[in-house]
Amino acid sequence: GRTAKALKSLQFTNPGRQTEFTPETSKREKRRLQTKNPSFNSDRQVIPAKSKVYDSQGLLLYNGMDLCDCLDEDCLGCFYACPKCGSNKCGTE
């Protein structure tokens, strides 16, 4: 009973694939190295810091139109009045 159980717990058990583990070739290690090295991520799109979309009058810079943030040409404004300019189109900051 007890002695057999104790002897069994003391016996060597094969650890299996754990002995074959090599950190240099593991997926986790490769992923960790890729996140640390930006040259691996060269295919990812780099998003610049917030750039201006509207001019000082609230018109879109790329086409000069007076559009709401929802970009619907018929929209009169989706937001409460802006504390800076009073427009209902500029949204929240």
Automatic annotation (TrEMBL):
The organism's place on the tree of life at top rank: Eukaryota
Q: Which residues form the signal peptide?
A: none
Query: InterPro entries under this entry?
Result: ARF7EP_C
Residues folding into a coiled coil are none
Ranges for region Disordered:
15-42
Q: Where is the composition biased (Polar residues)?
A: 15-24
Q: Which residues form the ARF7 effector protein C-terminal domain?
A: 5-93
Q: Which PANTHER family match?
A: ARL14 EFFECTOR PROTEIN
The protein's name in its UniProt record: ADP-ribosylation factor-like 14 effector protein
Source species of the chain: Meleagris gallopavo (Wild turkey)
Lineage from the top down? Eukaryota, Metazoa, Chordata, Craniata, Vertebrata
